[in-house]
Amino acid sequence: MFSLILDVNINRVYNQVRYNLKSKVFHEQVIISLFEFNCLVIKLHLYKALELNIGKMNTLSFVGGGGKTTTIFKLAQELKSLNKKVLISTTTAMYIPDSEQYDYLFFKNIEKKFLPKGGTISVLGEGIENGKLRGLNILKLEKTINNRIYDHVLIEADGAKEMSIKAPADYEPVVTRKTTITIGMIGLDCLGKRIKEFVHRPELFIKITGKGYCDIIDEQSIVKLVLHGNGTFKNSKGEKILILNKCDNSRILSKATTIKTILQERGFKNNIVIADIKSRNFAKGI
Q1: In the CATH scheme, what is the code of domain 44-283?
Q2: Which end of the chain is more exposed for a tag (fewer CB within 10 A), N or C?
Q3: Which is more confidently placed, 233 or 36?
Q4: Strand 281-283 vs strand 58-64: parallel, antiparallel, or unpaired?
């Protein structure tokens, strides 16, 4: 009986030690991974990562998925801090910003004699519907841009139903001809996820990528989407910039680097930004 109790206790101690050793290895791997990631990223202003010429008027249209609204307001706040006059609008729909995120809010039109002050953000939409700011008629928006009372115009020109990746429909995205820079966005948290569960308009995505509904989104899927004529940069105007967003660990950073390398090898000559916009982490010179 004593021998049986001793054997049981020895087994318990052995299993606990083995568990602790495994945990120690696991935690060391996590620490090393975090250290490697932190060595490869840098805190940076978004406008600098985009290589935005803040001394000239810019009209930026944001398309794709994976953080467009967050990116627009982050950039707007940076430009505001530089004493710029910023207009945010949408040609589709976007979430209504909190009141502390803007200085002026207009529906349908901007007042005729209105002149924004330096270091302010204006928001312009057609109205509010189902809790969202409804998209402005594109002709009205172009008229406002032509008035040149703003230094920078930031437009949410696409919808993704909160998905990190999408393929555009025939009528998407709605990009004004006044656009000087089209910013395509993809959230890298989609990697390794099933197409049917994580893609907005999966039926179009599989046509572009040659995948099946139940297949996994991988690096090649993203490359094909970016380069395809009906993919991320469909209807784009002006300069193109690709943001690979939601890169928040070394594993995803490695995959993002692979995507960037393949795109460059296949002739994508435009700026590719690897980042986690929320945390202001940007990949160092990759």
Answers
A1: 3.40.50
A2: N
A3: 233
A4: unpaired
